[in-house]
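hey so i finally got around to running the thing on that chain from the lab meeting. sorry it took forever, my laptop kept dying and i had to restart like 3 times. anyway pasting the input first so we r on the same page abt which one it is
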Amino acid sequence: MASRQEPAAFRPAAARKTRWVTFTLDAPEAAEVFLAGDFTRWGEQARKMKQRKDGTWCLRTWMPPGEHEYRFIVNGQWSDDPRCGRRRPNPFGSENCIV
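ok and heres what got predicted. didnt touch it at all, straight out
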């Protein structure tokens, strides 16, 4: 029996709120940049970002509902998102950004 997908109106509210989020970082001198956060199990599944011609790094990713903490890894070093105004202290003496 073939399964059919339920219309969006019948899906759980959490599933309907999942959305695409675009992360960008201006780091033209960087050789590589990764996005790491609670949604990637931090360093375990950090996502490699792509560099644009203007030197900014970009990644569009599917985000589950709710608040999420994240940081960038630039050339192997943990880095803040300078555009993010919401932060939370982490156990390593720095802060995680919140989206």
